[in-house]
Write a structure and sequence with these properties.
heterodimer; A: mainly alpha; 51% helix; 0% strand; B: 9-stranded mixed β-sheet; 19 helices; EC 2.5.1.60 (chain B); repeat (chain B); transferase (chain B)
Chain lengths: 289, 703
C-alpha cells in the first residue's frame, strides 16, 4: 500500500516554517498562526516537536496578541477568535499556557458571546458555529468554561442542527463537514452529545466516503484530504467511525502523499488547504490502531 | 482552497512568482501601516481596495474598510446627513466586495462585509437579489450565497412560499442540487410550524413533495440529493402521537415482587439492605417529557401517589426519554401480601409530549398485582454463592422442561396491551408508506441503486412499525427475510459501508426474534434442570452468535433477568438500561472497546453477574464512546466522588476513572474480565475493593 513518509513530512513542515517570502507564504501571512498550529501538532504527533525553537515560536505567538486580549493571525493583524484558539493550542502544545494572562484572554473570548448564545468572531459581529466551537474549546483548554453561558451556547448550536442530522454555520444553513466537526466538538466538550441523532448524522457522515475511498465535505462534491479530519473526527466522537472503510481511506491519503515526496523544496501541495498534512498523519496513526 | 492542483513551476514562472511575492508583501505592509495609523484618505482606501482584490482573505483589510466607513459616517453626523454621499460610500464598499468575490466567491470576509453594509439600511436589496441569482447560476452549491440569500429575504420580508418557488425553479433546473433541497426542507418546516394544527394541509403538501422528489429519483437514482430529502419526508410521514408501548410489570400480570437487589435469584443479596424496592417501568413509542405524578397516577393501598418520583432513564433531547421509571419500596409493615393490586394511569392529562411536539392524548392504564412471599424476610445467612456458568450445558431449552404457569405468563407481555394502542394512529401514514414502497420497488426493478435498496429496507421497517402499532394494513405482512435480504445485498453492493448495514440489520433481526411468542421462545432457556439445586426460577434469553452489533426491541424484553449476548459484534449496549430486572448478563466475545461503553449498566440495580471477557477494552488508542458517556469530565455528572479510600489501591485513579465511574454503584457478585488488554492484577484488586459484594472475579474467589 505504501507508507507514511514521516521524514519528508517533517522536512516539509520545517521548510514552511523557515519560508516567509514566497508568494504562497505572503498570501497566507494573515493566517500564519493557524498554519503554525497545524504544522506543530503534526510534528508533535510524529514525535519531532523538538526540531523547532520553542522559545522563538512562543515569543512570536505572544507578539500576535492584541491589546484586547485576542490574537491576530500574525504580528500586526487584528484580533479574531480563529487565531486566539490557535495561539492557545500552540502554547498548550509546548506546555506554556502560563505565559498567558488567562483572565485577559478568557474575557476577550467570553465578551464575544451574544444574547442568543452564539459567538461573534470578533468585534465586527460575524456569527458562525465555528466560533462557538472555538470559544468553547479555548475556554475548556484554559479551564474557564464558566465564564460563558454554556446552556445558551449549546441551545444556539442545536438551533443550527439540520433535518439531515448535520449542522450548518447559522440556523437554516446547509450541513457541511467542517461545521459538523465544530458543532459536534462543542457538544462533546460540554457533555451535550445526547442531543445528536448519532444514527442519522452517522449515516450522513459515512456517505461522505466515495468510491475512491476519500471523503467529501457534503453530498455530490469532490473528496479532499482535509475532510478526512472533519468527517473522521466527527464520526469518532459519535462512535460511528466503523461505518466507513478505514483501509480505503488510508490508501486515499497515502495516494495524496505521492505527489509531495518528490517536490519537497517547492510549494507543491496536492490540496493547498492548511490542515492537509496534519490529517494524514493523525488519522493514519489512529486508523492503523 | 481545495482541489487546486499545482504543477512544478518553470524557471520563468518561479521568477514571476517571486516578483509577485515582493509586490504583495509591500502592499500588505503598506496597508498595515495605514491601518495602525488610522489613515482613511482616498489613496489609503484605494490601497486597501487593491489589497482585497488581490487577497480577499486578508481579513484585517475588511476590518479597515469598516473602520473607514464608520469614520466617514461619524464625520457626516457633524454636518447634515447627506444620504446621497452615504449611499455612494456604501456602494463603493459593495464594489470592493464584488471584485473580491470575483477572485474568490467563497470568501467569508467578502460576504460578511456585504452583509454588514446592507445592515446599514441604505442599499438596494433588489440589486442583491439580482446579484445572488447570478452567483447561484454559476455555483448553485455555494453555501455563502445561500446564507446571504436567507439574510436578504429576511430583510425584504419575502415569504417562505415565494422562496419555496425559487427552490422549485432551481431544482427543475438541476435535480442534483442538495443545497436547494435542503433549503426546501427548511422552508417547509417553517410552514408546517406556522400552520400548526392543520394536519390535513401538511398531509397534502407532503404528498406533493413525494411526487416532486420522485422525479429526481427516477431521473438520476445515483444522485444522493433526492434520497436524503426523501428520508426527511419519510420521517415527517411517520410522526405520530406518542403512546405507551409496554410496561413492567405488564398489564394483567400477577407475580411475585421482583426486588431490585436481585434477592429472588441471589438470596444472599438481601442482607445488604433493608429496602425492598422494586421497579415500575414505562416504555413509550417516542422519547417524551412531562412524565410525573400528575400525568401518571398510581392507585394502590400502600402508596401515596404524590410521593412517587418518575425519572427518565436515558434522557436525550432536553430531557425527553422513551423509558421512564420509578422505584417503589414495600412498606415495613407489609409482611405477606396476597394480590396487592396496583393501577397505573398513564397520561391522565395531555401533558406528556414527544420531541416532535405531539402530545399523548389518550389515557392508558395498567393493572397488575403483586404478592410478597411470606419468607422473604428470612436472611439467607451462610449460604455460599455458587459460581454462575454460561456454558451451553447449563442451559436447557424450555421446551424440554415442564414449565410452571408463571413462566408462560411472564412472556405474555410480549403482546402489547390492547388499550395502549394508539387510536390516533394514522391511516394516511400507512397509505403513503405503502405507496412509496411500490414506487421504490418499481425503481429497483430497472436499476440496482444502493440508496434505493436502503430506502426500501427502511420503508419496509417503517411499515412494520405502523403495523405493530395496530394500524390497519389490508393484511400486508412484514417479511423480515426480505428486509434482511436487502441489507445482505447492500453489504455486497457497498462494502465500504458494511458496518452501517450490519448495525441497521441487527435491529431488524431483533425485531424478527421478538415479533411473536413462538419466535422468542426458540431463544429461551432454563438455567439448570428441575433436579439441580442451582435451578433459577427464570428464563435466560440466549442471543449469542447472531452477528448482532447493537441492541433493539427492548420494549419487548422488559421481563428479562438473564441475557446472553456473547459471541456477537456488539460495541454499544445502549438500550439495556431499560431492562431493570437484569441480573445476569453475558457480553463476552464482543467488540466493547472501553469501560465507558458500559455506562447503561449503571442504571441496572439488579445486576449481579457480569461477563465482559474477551472484548477490546484497552486495545484501542482512541475511545470512541468517551464523549457519549455522561462522565464528570463533561460537566454532566456531579463530582461527589470520595477517592480517599482508594488512593492506596495500587491503581492510578486518573487512568481508571472510568472503572470507578462504572463499577462503584454496582453490587456485582461475579465478574469476568479476562481477555481484555487493560486487565492486570492491580486492576483486579481495585475491583475487589470497589465492590465489597464481589465474590468471584475471573473464576477466583475473593478469599
Amino acid at each position: 500500500m505504501g507508507e507514511l513518509k514521516t521524514e519528508k513530512h517533517v522536512e516539509y513542515i520545517l521548510s514552511v516554517e523557515k519560508r516567509k517570502d514566497d508568494f504562497v507564504s505572503v498570501v497566507m501571512e494573515h493566517l500564519r498562526l493557524n498554519g503554525a498550529y497545524w504544522g506543530l501538532t503534526t510534528l508533535d504527533i510524529l514525535g519531532k516537536l523538538e526540531a523547532v525553537d520553542q522559545d522563538e515560536v512562543v515569543s512570536w505567538v505572544m507578539q500576535c496578541q492584541h491589546k484586547s486580549g485576542g490574537f491576530g493571525g500574525n504580528i500586526g493583524h487584528d484580533p479574531h477568535l480563529l487565531y486566539t484558539l490557535s495561539a492557545i493550542q500552540v502554547l498548550a502544545l509546548f506546555d506554556k499556557i502560563e505565559v498567558l494572562d488567562i483572565e485577559k484572554v478568557s474575557n476577550y473570548i467570553a465578551g464575544l458571546q451574544n444574547e442568543d448564545g452564539s459567538f461573534s468572531g470578533d468585534m465586527w459581529g460575524e456569527v458562525d458555529t465555528r466560533f462557538s466551537y472555538i470559544a468553547i474549546c479555548s475556554l475548556a483548554l484554559l479551564h474557564q468554561l464558566d465564564k460563558i453561558n454554556v446552556e445558551k451556547a449549546v441551545k444556539y448550536i442545536l438551533s443550527c442542527q439540520n433535518l439531515d442530522g448535520g449542522f450548518g454555520c447559522t440556523p437554516g444553513a446547509e450541513s457541511h463537514a467542517g461545521q459538523i466537526f465544530c458543532c459536534v466538538g462543542a457538544l462533546a466538550i460540554t457533555g451535550s452529545l445526547h442531543h445528536v441523532d448519532e444514527d442519522l448524522l452517522g449515516w450522513w457522515l459515512c456517505e461522505r466516503q466515495v468510491k475512491s475511498g476519500g471523503l467529501n465535505g457534503r453530498p455530490e462534491k469532490l473528496p479532499d484530504v482535509c475532510y478526512s479530519w472533519w468527517v473522521l473526527s466527527s464520526l469518532i466522537m459519535i462512535d460511528r467511525v466503523h461505518w466507513i472503510d478505514k483501509e480505503k481511506l488510508v490508501k486515499f491519503i497515502l495516494d495524496c502523499q505521492k505527489m509531495v515526496e518528490f517536490q519537497i523544496g517547492q510549494t507543491m501541495l496536492l490540496m493547498s488547504s492548511t490542515p492537509t498534512l496534519e490529517l494524514p498523519v493523525f488519522h493514519f496513526l489512529n486508523i492503523q490502531d | 482552497m481545495h482541489g487546486i492542483y499545482r504543477k512544478t513551476p518553470s524557471q520563468d514562472e518561479q521568477e514571476a512568482s517571486a516578483l509577485k511575492a515582493i509586490e504583495l508583501r509591500d502592499l500588505q505592509s503598506q496597508f498595515l501601516h495605514l491601518h495602525h495609523n488610522k489613515i482613511y484618505t482616498k489613496e489609503a482606501l484605494e490601497t486597501s481596495a487593491k489589497l482585497l482584490e488581490v487577497n480577499p482573505e486578508h481579513y484585517t483589510g475588511w476590518n479597515y474598510r469598516k473602520l473607514a466607513v464608520q469614520h466617514f459616517l461619524n464625520h457626516q453626523s457633524e454636518t447634515e446627513a447627506d444620504s446621497e454621499s452615504i449611499q455612494s460610500v456604501l456602494n463603493e464598499e459593495l464594489k470592493v466586495v464584488e471584485n473580491a468575490l470575483k477572485k474568490n466567491f467563497k470568501s467569508y470576509g467578502a460576504w460578511y462585509h456585504r452583509k454588514w453594509v446592507l445592515s446599514k439600511g441604505h442599499s438596494s436589496t433588489d440589486n442583491e437579489l439580482r446579484l445572488l441569482v447570478k452567483f447561484q447560476k454559476l455555483d448553485s452549491r455555494n453555501f455563502n450565497a445561500w446564507n446571504y440569500r436567507r439574510f436578504i429575504t429576511m430583510l425584504k420580508k419575502i415569504s417562505d412560499e415565494e422562496e419555496l418557488q425559487y427552490t422549485t425553479d432551481m431544482i427543475y433546473d438541476n435535480f442534483s442540487n442538495y443545497s436547494a433541497w435542503h433549503n426546501r426542507s427548511v422552508l417547509l418546516s417553517h410552514l408546517f410550524e406556522k400552520r400548526g394544527e392543520r394536519q390535513s394541509h401538511k398531509e397534502s403538501v407532503l404528498e406533493e413533495e413525494f411526487e416532486f422528489v420522485r422525479n429526481a429519483l427516477f431521473t438520476d437514482p445515483d444522485d444522493q440529493s433526492g434520497w436524503f430529502y426523501h428520508l426527511w419526508l419519510l420521517d415527517q410521514t411517520v410522526k405520530l402521537e406518542p403512546f405507551l408501548l409496554s410496561s413492567w410489570p405488564p398489564h394483567g400480570s400477577s407475580r411475585s415482587v421482583d426486588y431490585l437487589d436481585g434477592r429472588n435469584l441471589f438470596p444472599s443479596m438481601h442482607s445488604l439492605s433493608k429496602d425492598r424496592m422494586f421497579p415500575l417501568v414505562l416504555y413509550f413509542s417516542e422519547p417524551v417529557e412531562g412524565v410525573n405524578s400528575s400525568t401518571v397516577t398510581i392507585e394502590c393501598e400502600y402508596y401515596a401517589n404524590e410521593d412517587v418520583i418518575w425519572r427518565p432513564l436515558s434522557a436525550n433531547k432536553f430531557g425527553f426519554s422513551q423509558v421512564w421509571f420509578t422505584y417503589l419500596n414495600l412498606p415495613d409493615e407489609v409482611h405477606s401480601l396476597k394480590d396487592c393490586h396496583v393501577k397505573v394511569f398513564v397520561a391522565q392529562f395531555p401533558d406528556i409530549v414527544s420531541s416532535s411536539g405531539f402530545s399523548c392524548s389518550q389515557t392508558s392504564h395498567i393493572v397488575f398485582s403483586l404478592c410478597v412471599p411470606s419468607h422473604d424476610r428470612e436472611h439467607a445467612e451462610g449460604q455460599t454463592v455458587p459460581r454462575f456458568s454460561w456454558k451451553d450445558k447449563e442451559f436447557y431449552s424450555h421446551a424440554t422442561q415442564s414449565h410452571d404457569a408463571s413462566l408462560l405468563r411472564s412472556l405474555h407481555q410480549l403482546k402489547i396491551a390492547e388499550e395502549s394502542k394508539s387510536k390516533a394512529a394514522s391511516d394516511w401514514s400507512m397509505k403513503i408508506i405503502s405507496n412509496e414502497i411500490a414506487h421504490c420497488r418499481e425503481l429497483l426493478s430497472s436499476t440496482n441503486c444502493k440508496i434505493g435498496k436502503l430506502t426500501l429496507a427502511r420503508l419496509l421497517m417503517a411499515q412494520n412499525k405502523l403495523i405493530s402499532y395496530g394500524i390497519p394494513n389490508d393484511g400486508i405482512e412484514v417479511h423480515y427475510e426480505e428486509i434482511l435480504g436487502l441489507y445482505h445485498d447492500l453489504m455486497k453492493l457497498d462494502p465500504v459501508h458494511i458496518c452501517c448495514y450490519e448495525d441497521e440489520s441487527s435491529l431488524v433481526l431483533l425485531k424478527q426474534v421478538t415479533s411473536s411468542m413462538e419466535s422468542i421462545l426458540r431463544y429461551c432457556y432454563q438455567y439448570g434442570d428441575s433436579t439441580s439445586p442451582r435451578m433459577y426460577p427464570c428464563l435466560c434469553l440466549r442471543l449469542n452468535g447472531l452477528s448482532l452489533s447493537q441492541i433493539g426491541s427492548v420494549e419487548r424484553l422488559l421481563w428479562i433477568q438473564m441475557l446472553d449476548l456473547s459471541h456477537n459484534k456488539i460495541r454499544s449496549i445502549e438500550g439495556l438500561e431499560a431492562l431493570q430486572l437484569l441480573s445476569c448478563l453475558n457480553l463476552s466475545n464482543n467488540k466493547i472497546c472501553s469501560f465507558t461503553a458500559l455506562e447503561p449498566l449503571r442504571s441496572l440495580k439488579s445486576l449481579k453477574v457480569l461477563n465482559i471477557s474477551y472484548n477490546e477494552i484497552g486495545a484501542h488508542a482512541v475511545n470512541t464512546r468517551r464523549y457519549l458517556c455522561s462522565s464528570p469530565m463533561t460537566h454532566t455528572v456531579e463530582n461527589d466522588w470520595n477517592f480517599k479510600e482508594f488512593t492506596n489501591s495500587g491503581v492510578k485513579l486518573t487512568n481508571h476513572w472510568d472503572v470507578f465511574f462504572i463499577f462503584r454503584d454496582l453490587n456485582l457478585i461475579q465478574l469476568d474480565i479476562m481477555g481484555n488488554a487493560v486487565v492486570n492484577d492491580q486492576l483486579k484488586s481495585f475491583l475487589f475493593k470497589l465492590m465489597p459484594s464481589l465474590k468471584w472475579l475471573d473464576g477466583e474467589n475473593r478469599n
